[in-house]
């Protein structure tokens, strides 16, 4: 199926669900009152302003501007597409970092980890987990070779 046909089919259910969600939750939810105006400023090219009420770095806003078309069709993102959160981009970056580490592509894993931390600072814990799990694997291999 072509991209245009796929976008058309997705639009048939995205648009009605968007309307429904906006009717049920017409007001900004939780911290969206801070994030939405910030994202709008970024989309207008104003990268120098920053709302001090926002505690996350501007990674999600920049990332979403670059990948807006992809994210709307991304299956995991569907469930959160009506709310502006870091959950899906954060999860994607962390899982990609871990996968790159498992494939022994350490530099790429580190870059993905840095991106994950820019999106959400608490991902530093997941970065530490990935590093420690690989260190344990490397030490285990070293011990097996030297003992056995």
From TrEMBL:
Pathway connected to this protein: Protein modification; protein glycosylation
Residue spans crossing the bilayer: 82-102
Cellular location(s): Endoplasmic reticulum membrane
Membrane topology: Multi-pass membrane protein
Keywords annotated in UniProt: Endoplasmic reticulum, Glycosyltransferase, Membrane, Signal, Transferase, Transmembrane, Transmembrane helix
Function field: Dol-P-Glc:Glc(2)Man(9)GlcNAc(2)-PP-Dol alpha-1,2-glucosyltransferase that operates in the biosynthetic pathway of dolichol-linked oligosaccharides, the glycan precursors employed in protein asparagine (N)-glycosylation. The assembly of dolichol-linked oligosaccharides begins on the cytosolic side of the endoplasmic reticulum membrane and finishes in its lumen. The sequential addition of sugars to dolichol pyrophosphate produces dolichol-linked oligosaccharides containing fourteen sugars, including two GlcNAcs, nine mannoses and three glucoses.
Protein name: Dol-P-Glc:Glc(2)Man(9)GlcNAc(2)-PP-Dol alpha-1,2-glucosyltransferase
Lineage: Eukaryota, Viridiplantae, Streptophyta, Embryophyta, Tracheophyta
